[in-house]
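User: Before I run my own analysis I want an independent prediction to cross-check against. Here's the chain; please return only the structure tokens and, at the end, one sentence I can use as a sanity check.
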Amino acid sequence: MTETDYTRSAAGEVPVAPRSRLQRLMRYIPLVAPVLLWTVPCWVLLHTGQHWPLPVTLIGTTLFALGLIGMPLAMVRGHGRRQQDAAAIVGDTLLGSIWVLFTWSVLFGVLLRLALTVAGVGDGQDRARTVTWAVVGVAAVLLAWGYAEARRVPRVRRLDVRLPRLGAGLDGTRVVLITDTHYGPLDRARWSERVCATVNTLEADLVCHTGDIADGTAERRRAQAAPLGTVRATRARVYVTGNHEYYSEAQGWVDLMHELGWEPLRNRHVLLERGGDTLVVAGVDDVTAESSGLEGHGARLAEALDGADSGLPVLLLAHQPTFVDRAAAHGIDLQLSGHTHGGQIWPFHYLVRLDQPALAGLSRHGARTLLYTSRGTGFWGPPFRVFAPSEITLLVLRSPQRSG
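Assistant: Structure tokens:
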């Protein structure tokens, strides 16, 4: 090992493992990805045998080049230090649009072209132009539909969840989960009001928000988040932080949610009692809190359960599904999470699954622990949802001891 493989300290030299080739390559993804996203559709749609008139080719190529330059600039101005909402909207919309165009350029550029060739349809130019129009048509339809899906009030997804340790008195407890509202550059105050009104029709005993309230500080997004104060529950309204809070002054969001009447479960628990039985409702900070530098913030499950009777069933709020390994080790009965958005824009869900143990829905982990992962109530960044519908979730807890 050479001297460059060491870090020095007062205690001497401590060996540090050299970065892997994959880790070194990952540094270049932010540079390479935009180039691929814009050049692949440009090549497939304009330069693979279509023989468009020269003005069409020049104008089209110029538009792709402007997108390649403009999207990163808009993203930096919108989500960087300047936090310019107009720039964020432009950058996010371009990102979502080019992702869809890239996906279908790759699929149709290979599969459709191959199918047309095997079927003997037309000559090379006819097939190339057919691919172009198919990509443009499918992308336009999916983007229009995806925009409508992202902006609508989510449908309610209802499911019964059987918890073997749940007492009979708690059978039928109604838990509503909202998460990843991501109030942001697009003003969604009216949407927020309608979401909260929908939640109030569900007659919940417990309403949970598992984080990523917004992109931006509590002061900046207060008007969009304010309707959360109108949410009703017969027992409690509880909240835990998501990773995006830690990009936007997390303590401000904790304070605002408390002001709006929600109970922030920062590594603590409350008890939900009904019919003579008790459910422990615990919550932890998001896992990113551990590296946020904020004093007192960090995901500490043992602290959240401190003082709780180990014989009682536990419902845990944790923003990221990846926390379920710790939950299972502690014998948690049910973890509620968000974060994944169900992939938000297909086929991004394949990448999400590389990072998280679950994408959406109910899954089992270990001998006892169930995990419910919501696709999210809002959207992050690109204002599109393609094959990943948003949701407001109603979970009805069921006891094996219930009568009837």
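Sanity check: Residues 20-150 form one domain.
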